Amino acid sequence: MSILVTPQEETIVPEPAEVWFANPPLTETDTEAPAWYREMQEKSWARYHELPVPTRKNQDWRFADLKKIRFTDLAPADPATDPAALVARAMTGRPENFAAHFVFANNRLIYSETADLPAGAICLPLKEALATHGDLVRAHFLQEEKNLGGDKFAALHGAATLSGLFVHFPKGCVSEKPVLVHHFSGGEARAIFPHTLVVAEDHASVSIVDVFESIAPSEQTLNVGMVDLFADRGGKIQYVALQGLSDNGAKHVQIHSSRAGRDAAVKVAFLNLGAAWVRNESLSRMVDSGADCQIFSANLANGIQEYDQRTLQSHEAQHTTSDLFFKNALYHKSRTIFSGLIHVKPGAHHTDSFQTCRNLLGSEEAEANSMPGLEIDADQVKCSHGSTAGQISEEEIFYLRARGIPADDARKIISLGFLNESIAKLEGDELKEYLFSRVERKFAALDGRG
Fold this sequence. Notes:
- By secondary structure, the chain is an alpha/beta fold.
- It has one domain (about 35-445).
- Helices cover about 20% and strands about 35% of the residues.
- It has eight helices and 21 strands.
- It has helices at about 35-50, 85-90, 125-130, 135-140, 150-160, 395-400, 405-425, 430-445, and strands at about 75, 100-105, 110-115, 120-125, 165-170, 180-185, 190, 195-200, 205-215, 220-230, 235-245, 250-260, 265-270, 275-285, 290-300, 305-315, 320-330, 335-345, 350-360, 365-375, 380-390.
- Strands 1, 4, 5, 7, 8, 10, 12, 14, 16, 18 and 20 form an eleven-stranded mixed sheet that branches. Strands 3-2-6-9-11-13-15-17-19-21 form a ten-stranded mixed sheet, with helices on one face.
- Residues about 1-15 have low confidence and may be disordered.
């Protein structure tokens, strides 16, 4: 039961060596950065060398194809040769209403537009924020322990020259429009290191969208990104990562941490449509009463793509809530891996937490691996987890064919509706339409009509 498509060729050849970088991946001297940051870079580089490359003995990498992380002779990406064309690409089809728009190409800012930021909000490239708001950045930058398997990637990220944004909304600062950020990457065996740091103070509200795209197809690029989100006392953050890199060669790592304080809410969504290999790690911490974290994912995998997602919902106070809802649609020989844990810590009574992973198999050769889990150390909690995998029902196909819809189009409609259920949980109609259009574009490319 599958859409009739032409599979991509298996062009990925694993590299034999284990050495990723011979020197720290720095593209410039951070002379204006504060001393604490330069010291952190040095410690991160030392830790990177101490940490081993993941092996099959590591349970955090269970089911993963470790050949995909055999990198050799990587180097920081060079400046893009045609930044104007990339800016034009970033503007094409973007939501019309936005608070700001930043475009990075190969780890360098090439365009910025602050259209409608509210008064008091700080929205700056990370390099500039370190120089002008160093103490504010330090309070939240890379403060969470990385314990889902990607420690070596996190250490490498900490040692690198970073691109990306620092967004700080002070008390009561609210924007209904999202901040858009595009990250383009290109060059053979080249790497970029995007970072997003968002702080929403008391009753502030902010929405961020990161978009990842390749400059050219079939280049062996690596993105090693990290995200830090902190909402306090009624603050609200919505973060969306749209990954649309080239299916052939591009590899993408994103390590995400959310921390929600008293009555705060953090909503996170991952939309994976491209890349040959993806590793998403997400830590959601509810650290005070009334905190809520929601994490959604919609993934469309084809060819020999592998999407590997690991999550931890950590309830650390009473009366906290969380919800995880992941959807995977798989075609050809693609693979997905989901490993998620709900941990209700001692004293975190009256917790409500849910975890759902659903897989739609469009090919008999596709493979979905799911490992949901619970660890409960408190009383009076409501927790559930579950995972399902199956093919499109023949009854659904028959129903649509009886109404004049060809079988292949029927399968596409069902798959789109399946993934849209995750996207629909986000806020902002224009944003949801933009994301859903990207899913439709991927399907159009799959069946040769786009």
